[in-house]
Amino acid sequence: MPTTKSLVQMHDVALVYGEGENGLLALEHFNLEIRTGEFIALVGPSGCGKSTVLKLVSGLRRAQQGGVIVANREVTEPLKIVGMAFQSPALLPWRTVMSNTMLPMEIVEPHCRSFKRDIASHKERAEQLFRSVGLKDVAERYPWQLSGGMQQRASLCRALIHQPQLLLLDEPFGALDAFTREELWDTLKALWSEKKFTVVMVTHDLAEAVYLADTVHVFSQRPGRIIHSRRIPKECRRRREDRYTSLFSDEVARLRQYISHSQESCS
Questions:
Q1: Rounded-to-integer distance, Cα 36 and Cα 198, Å
Q2: Counting Cβ atoms within 10 Å, is residue 264 exposed (0-12), middle (13-18) or buried (19+)?
Q3: Residue 177 contacts residue 122 (beta carbons within 8 Å)
Q4: CB 60 within 8 Å of CB 17
């Protein structure tokens, strides 16, 4: 599925939070390339700059040094081709699931200009997404009427309703129980295979990274940079049963070793 064409290029990027002596250097000499259609995972110690990469790629923050290129254009403002989902579903409690899912269509160009005219087709697309993620008969329910797993499924639908080229995920399943989390891994895999979007996922769960991602990038301690990139064998991520093989365990162990070395080098 992935092609050789690059959707995202980050070259020699640096970013500091704050100013002066109290400034916090989050990234330095950071380089990353992501191919169109690729699913990558970013792993590493807490506070190493993984979420900062998502902010830079989405245009929520600008690099102070280096270049961030997405879809052949320098990122200078929030991008319309991006969908985002976070650890907290952040659904608006006064809106129904359908209304929450419609939110990007109301505010993202060019959809917002024809939102009222095209609302029927938007709702049809939302219903298709609901079916794809295993949500049934919830369109008119409110977030507080749903379980945590159902809320996160709705959050994924909202992130995908405007058919983004790039889906950014910041620990989207971290707050869920193990059973629900693993169910949503398969849901996300199925959506990715069907929709052909590019995915960048931040996670602390190495098994999640190995099972979902084409490539896993390991970060150093802050200031963040990539110290190891691992292409994951397809045999590790075809079926649920693959997670219980020795090959899968070995891949997880290799990643953990690099993270441990990163932490020890800064201790």
A1: 6
A2: exposed
A3: no
A4: no
**Do the beta carbons of residue 168 and residue 79 sit within 8 Å?**
no
Query: Does a cis peptide bond (omega within 30 degrees of 0) precede residue 223?
Result: yes
Sequence-distant (6+) residues with CB within 8 A of 66 are 10, 11, 12, 13, 14, 30
pLDDT digits (tens, 9 = 90+) for 45-98: 888 999 999 999 999 999 999 999 999 999 999 999 999 999 899 999 999 999
What's the pLDDT score for residue 109?
A: 79
In whole angstroms, give the CA distance from residue 1 to residue 189. 13
Strand order in the sheet with 6-17: 24-35, 6-17, 65-70, 73-74
Residue range 125-176, pLDDT digits in tens: 999 999 989 898 899 999 999 999 999 999 999 999 999 999 999 999 988 9
Token pair 């329910």 is at which residue?
Answer: 141
- Ordered by start, the domain boundaries in the chain are 1-81+167-173+190-267, 87-164
Pick the CATH number of 1-81+167-173+190-267 from 3.20.20.370, 3.40.50.1820, 3.40.50.300, 3.20.20.80: 3.40.50.300
Q: Which residues of 120-136 are buried (b: 16+ CB within 10 A; e: fewer)?
A: eebbebbeebbebbebe
Angle, CA 267 vertex, CA 222 and CA 252 arms, to 5°: 70
Q: What share of the chain is helix, strand, coil (3-state, %, to 5)?
A: 40, 25, 35
Q: Which of 161, 165, 170 lies closest to 41 in space, CA to CA?
A: 170
Is the distance from CB of 62 to CB of 79 less than 8 angstroms?
no
CA-to-CA distance for 200 and 130, rounded, in angstroms? 22
Q: Give the residue-averaged pLDDT of 9-35.
A: 91
Question: At residue 134, what is the residue type?
Answer: G
pTM of the model: 0.92
